[in-house]
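Posting here for the record, re: glucose-6-phosphate.
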Amino acid sequence: MNDAWRALEAHYHESSGAHLRDLFAVDPGRAARYRIEGAGWLLDYSKHRINQETLSYLLALARSSGLEERRENMFKGEKINSTEGRAALHIALRAPRSSVIQVDGTDVVPSVHRVLERMAELARAIREERWLGFSGRPIRNIVNIGIGGSDLGPVMAYEALRHYSDRRLTFRFVSNVDYTDFAEAVRGLRPDETLFIVASKTFTTLETMTNAHSARDWLAGSAGSDSKAVARHFVALSTNADAVNAFGIPTDQMYEFWDWVGGRYSMDSAIGLSTMIAIGPQCYSEMLGGFHAMDEHFRNAPLDKNMPVIMGLLNVWYADFFGSETVAILPYAQYLKRFPAYLQQLTMESNGKHVTLSGQPVDYPTGPIFWGEPGTNGQHSFYQLIHQGTQLIPCDFIAFGHSLNPDTRGHHTFLIANAIAQAEALAFGRPLQKVIDEGTSAGLAPHRVLEGNRPSSLLLCERLSPAALGSLVALYEHSVFTQAAVWDINPFDQWGVELGKQLAKRVAEEIVSTDKILQHDSSTNAAIEWYRAHHR
Ligand code: G6Q
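Prediction output follows.
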């Protein structure tokens, strides 16, 4: 805890009692003051429990944590993922052809564009019906098999950009090792019209490889044992060429990426192949343009006019000083229905860390829990708790000026009116006197009071275009980075997921070999025995 932290803490104790009603009343220019534009997005953060002093303390904290230097190190390709000895260079995935970004003395930009060109060739071949299945029929169905970072980005992007997709093609996504996921995904599909994309950075992930083998069996059931015929129905997205070959996918059907692309930062690497097939190379390149525009904003805008920096610092403010444990992501756009799930991985796998970069235990809360649902659906379910519950839950409202499906009944206006109104209700509430003045009985009045003073950001954009999605994702990537810098943690590793994987392997072996003596705790032993007895 440094001086900047202590100064912010003192400021919190002095200022946190202020109500947003008063902050707005004394400052008519508040909305204009707390507003940033960049990369096609407008951030209104005036409904946060901050004043100019708060901002200066937060920015001082960011500077004292070395945010600017850390950011430069990321953009320069330094091995900032120190626990894995790797760079974290997702910004190179969307860098223009003319950029030079070096890792270990080699410019990675030409390789990025080479893979993008190969992806575009495949996307065009499928969209122009030149990629044929074993019976000579064109591919109509694309099934992405992957999990975690190799699934959440592709699913989210497909749903988000569905409006731009080639509607002749069917897209399905298989992630869970539960066979049901695979069985339902291929239900009704013709094998000779189906292409499987096996998306796995390591090509060793249990879930993905199990599903990939089931896919091969499913195809072989129709195509027979001719491995060349089967191979025509598989492409791989990976960093592990040997494992891809061993699976039987020819090298020219592998689209590579690199160890400096983290799984949850990979939706715009080769992992985005399904997205590119869906929306076409042109739209995909517009999406990359959106990512890049936000990268430039993050790298160059002054900290106090920097959207990801301000959003990241606000998360720190609530998590560490107000004790908020969660952040709600509330997109008022049905196409963004998987965006909260995507952000859960990006934020929580990145910043759910208990030690600093040097391995010391942190003595302050790190990554809050991210969750959410599209508006207006959430309003009819959990918003009650956000308005009147005992927890303080900062909210991100995301809304667009235009619908991609215009209507004549004013759906979009109702949709956006709700987003705006919810932010207003959260901030200003409904005080007791107003409730009484409205004629509510004394007994009921306390139940109808909304204390307000509940913070939110409003993120606005013209329309949900590929570029808008790219810049939105990059905005959160860099906000996560900002928080990690302040907390002095590594947002690019995920050691916490290892133990469960190892134990699952051991348990699976013990279930199969029933003669093995169980040496876990009594509860784990009992669960294994229960399954051995029931799964016969
Ligand atoms: C993401 C994580 C993790 C990873 C999956 C899939 O940052 O590393 O979610 O993406 O475990 O890994 P593979 O792509 O190697 O199959």
